[in-house]
Amino acid sequence: MKNKTLRILIIGAGSWGTTLAFMLARKGYDIKIWSKENEVIKDINENKKNSRYTADILLPTSIFAFGDSAKEGIINGDIIFDIIIFAVPSVYLREVSNGFNTLLNKFSVNIKAVVNAAKGIEPKTNLRMSQILCETLPRTLKSKISTLSGPNISSEIIRKLPSVSTIASDNDEITRYLQPILSTEYFRVYTNDDPIGVEICGAIKNIIAIASGISDGLGFGSNTKASLITRGLHELTKFGMKFGAKKATFSGAAGMGDLIATCVSSKSRNRSVGERIAKGEKLKDIVENMYMVAEGIETTKAIYNMSVKLNMELPITKCVYEVLYENADPLNSVKVLMMRKYKPEY
In the prediction, which pLDDT does 1 show? Predict the structure, then answer.
C-alpha cells in the first residue's frame, strides 16, 4: 500500500494523539485528528501547532483537525479510513467511542485496524481499554482491535528521540499489518500477542510512578527508586498473570520499559502527582490545576478495589491508594512498606 493512499483517523488531540499525528503525517499518510477543544482545532488548522499540548512544535501542513460539529460532514463526505487510533484519556474512552459509533459503523467494513493508545482501567467496570472498545464499537471491528504501549513519553518522541513500543492483539494479522505503518526511523514497534499483559502493564505502571514521585518528593535517593521499580514490576506481573497475561510481557517494552520511563521521567504526569502529594499538596488541588490527565489517579482506585475482591496483596498499590484517597501520611506509608512481614523475594 502506498503511503499517500493510507487514511488514518486519530481520535484525541492531546499530547500523545498529536505526537502520533505528527509522526504518521511525516510518513506521508493522510491524517485527520479529532479534538473536543475548539482552540486546539483552530491552532492546528491555522497555525500548524498544538500549543497547549505540544508547545511550539510545527506540525505537518497535511494534518486536518475537526470537532463534533464536523463529524456529519466527514460522514457525508464518504471519507473511508483505513485505521482508527483512539488516543483519549482512559476515563473518557467509553464516552468518546460511543460518540463515534455512527461514523465508524458506516465504514466499518473498510476499516482495517483499530488502535487503542490509552492506558488505564475503567473504575466502575474494571475493564481494560480494549474491552471498552469491544463493548462500544460496531461488531465488525471487534476482531481488529489492538493496543499500542511502551516507554513512549510523547514530548521525547515528537522531538524524534529514539524509542520502542509494542503493538498487541490476539489477531496476529492486525499486528503484522500495523507494525510497519506505525514504525519510523526513531520509533521502533514490536508485535506482541498478549494484549491482556500489555494493557495491565500500561495501567499499573502509573500507580508505581505515583509512588516513585512520592519517593522523589520525600527526598529519597536512587536506591529507593530502584526498589520501587523492582517491587512494582513484581506487582504488575503478579496481577497480570492472575488474568492470564504472559510472564515475558512484563520484562518487555510495555512492562519494564514503560515502568522505568514513567517512574524516572521529569515529564511523567503520574510521577509529578506523587511528588506534589509528598510535598503537601492536596489531590483535589492537583487535579484541578492539571489540564492533562494523570491516568494513575483513577487507576489506583480501580486496581486497589480489584485486589481487595481478589484477596491479592499489592502493597505499593495499597499504600498509594491510602495516600491518595484516605489522606495517609506518605512518610508513614514508607515505614509500613519497609516493616512488612519478612518473606522470600519471589
Answer: 43
| Plot region of 150 (φ>0 → left; ψ -120 to 50 → alpha; else → beta) | left
The count of structural domains within the chain is: 2
Catalytic residue among 205, 238, 242, 282: 205
pLDDT in tens, 231-289: 999 999 999 999 999 999 999 999 999 999 999 999 999 999 999 999 999 999 998 88
Pairing between strand 187-192 and 163-168?
parallel
The verdict on 266 and 160 lying in the same domain is: no
How far does the chain reach from its first CA to its final CA, in angstroms? 48
Helix axes 296-310, 195-217, angle to 10 degrees: 110
> Is residue 64 exposed (0-12), middle (13-18) or buried (19+ Cβ within 10 Å)?
middle
Q: Does the annotation count 2 as an active-site position?
A: no
Which residue reads 463493548 in cell numbers? 135
Residue-wise pLDDT tens digits, 66-90: 998 877 666 566 678 999 999 999 9
- What are the cell numbers at 31? 491524517
Tell whether 182 and 239 lie within a shared domain.
Answer: no
Report the pLDDT value the prediction gives residue 341, as an integer from 0 to 100. 83
Span 170-216, pLDDT tens digits: 999 999 999 999 999 999 999 999 999 999 999 999 999 999 999 99
